[in-house]
Amino acid sequence: MKPESVKPKVAFFDFAGCEGDQLQVANMEEKILDLIEVVDVVNFREIMTERSEDYDIAFVEGSIATDHDAERLQGIRENASWVVALGSCAAIGGINSIRNSQPYDLVQDRVYGDDADKIEAWDVAKPIDAIVDVDGYVYGCPINQDEFVHVVESLLQGKDPNIPTYPVCVECKMNENVCVFARNPEKNAANIKAAVDNGSPAESGPFCLGPVTRAGCDSQCVNEGTTCWGCRGLVPNPNENAHQEVLEKYGLSVDEVINKFNLYFGWQQEELKNEQ
Amino acid sequence: MKAIGKAEFSNFVDELIADDPREVIGVQAKSNKFAFDPLKSAEDLRLDYDVTILPPKKYFMPQRETLVKYNTNEGEMTAVNEVIPRIIFGIHPYDLIAIQQMDKVFEETHSDENYLAKRRESVLVGVNMKNASEWSFAHTMGTATTDSGYDLMLTDIGDKYAVEIGSVKGSELLEEAKSQLDDVGMEEIEKVREFKEELPDKFRDDPEFDPFELPRLLSEYYGKDGFWEENAEDCLSCGTCNLVCPTCYCFDVKDVNDITLTEGERLRTWDGCMLEAFAQVAGDENFREEKAARYRHRYMRKGRYMYNKFGDIACVGCGRCSEQCVPDIADPVDVFNQMKEGTNGI
């Protein structure tokens, strides 16, 4: 065991989010014992009561949606040597950014009803790197425990973690899953087109966001028979247009496609538009 | 050539599953598709399949494979080569031809013991194609039948399988079914010949090229303005066409450490030249940053580079890339026909 003094101190913080990513860390069980051999956890409200403002690595969960959040995050950034975004809300805006494309008044009214005027929030939810510099990302909703370990291990060695830039399809193929788009041979693109051409009511075929979503989850949702919802965010250079065309070919309406993309990609899509 | 009744063949497979120390693999239904998987019963073996999701290369070059284990406290490194001896039932001729191409790659360039040991310890039982995927153009590529690459080759001739012996390994495996084997007469030989004669009808008839003109066509089209950009426009860079290809063998190597940084392993995983980071090097330079450059590279590799190096056209016409590409842009027949016709409007 390394002497106490050389162990980096680690703290966990949370903003707008469900704390499910910290729960994944808390649920590491015996692997947590390995973790505390190499780092001192000084702040982690899900598992301990002690608090400390003296830390080296800050894991930050949740999106930033208020001035108060932003100030607190800036304080964390000043204290920490490394800031790591933990989970989709912190890393890419995630679920919180569904509301970014909706009128703020409507969102406020839906969520808080009669108390809407007591809440002062921004009209968009942002990932933490929209406010401060970020040194590392652990993607996912929730995060993958092995990837968390890999990011910690990489930080401790001073190297960049190896996070896939390719889409989930890679892992799906390696796992030899039947592609979501091929699960129902009756609902292939040609049959759907023929039905629409015949004037039949458009019936949605399969959808999967795997082709534009960053891998690293071992395609676990598709492995279990469901579909990829995009929780790890878009790959760095997604071919969104091509995939939207694919989804439309499989019978999704333009609105449905937009809704699917908005579940996790809200903030990232805005960013891509601004870049262009 | 020998023959074995279908019921006797099933018993033979079931006996291997029960008694042979090797793992018995066979093509089985996987939902509405097919896959090579360990067999629990001869009943599950589907020798009438059209094509599998992944080719059998996964047994010689696994998707994820540990090459080295290390312990930094002890300063120890150990080479790892996990070899599971296997009997693999139901390999189609195009996949057998692909495996022979892979053997050359792993033997003749840098002898790769992790691949070669797995090959040596495998028995390959081929089967002539009763059905073909609607995307397959094996006949065009000359891979609908093969005279080599198998230890045993089966042909469904009604109530029996005709069995051709391709190697001593195959003959030894057949020893275990010796009492069930019949010698063949003209009737069986004729049925196998007929089976092969009917094969071309099972494949698509749209290819307009001959495989051996591909190196020249690809050379002419290498710098063709706009050709690759147009064809690659809808590419998602998902690598599916690479990963499902029986002649793609590129891999990535990375170290996976435990959190205490004392133990770890060096892992090799499948990679693909269509993935954006494939040609990315230190300093973030990327030699094939544009998807059109990556898309072109895949075709050059299949139809020209491998031919120049080994004399093989490295597309065996299985149709897996064509079928599994979600935006439907990976069909080699489409691209090769465009070249042949010169009709891309350029």
Q: How many domains make up the 3D coordinates of chain A?
A: 2
Question: What's the CATH first level of the largest domain in chain A?
Answer: Alpha Beta
Tell me the strand order in the biggest sheet of chain B: 3-2-6-7-8-9-1-10
Largest interface summary: A-B, 42 and 39 residues
Report the major sheet of chain A. Answer: 5 strands, parallel
Quick description:
The complex is a heterodimer of chains A (276) and B (346). Chain A is an alpha/beta fold. Chain A has helices at residues 20-26, 30-38, 67-79, 88-92, 104-112, 145-157, 169-174, 189-197, 220-223, 240-249, 254-275; strands spanning 9-14, 40-43, 57-61, 82-86, 136-138.
Q: How does this model look, in words?
A:
The complex is a heterodimer of chains A (276) and B (346). With 276 residues, chain A is an alpha/beta fold. Helix content of chain A is 39%, strand content 8%. In chain A, helix 3 links the parallel strand 3 and strand 4 (82-86). Chain B has helices spanning 6-19, 93-109, 113-120, 138-141, 168-175, 186-198, 214-221, 227-232, 240-243, 291-310, 320-324, 332-341; strands at residues 2-5, 23-30, 33-38, 64-71, 76-79, 86-91, 122-127, 152-156, 160-165, 181-183, 251-257, 263-270. By secondary structure, chain B is α+β, with helices and mostly antiparallel strands. Chain B has two domains: 2-202, no CATH class; 211-341, no CATH class. In chain B, helix 7 runs antiparallel to helix 10. Chain B is globular and about 65 Å long. Classes of the chains: A alpha/beta (276), B alpha+beta (346). Chains A and B meet through helix 2, helix 6, helix 7 and helix 10 of A and strand 11 of B.
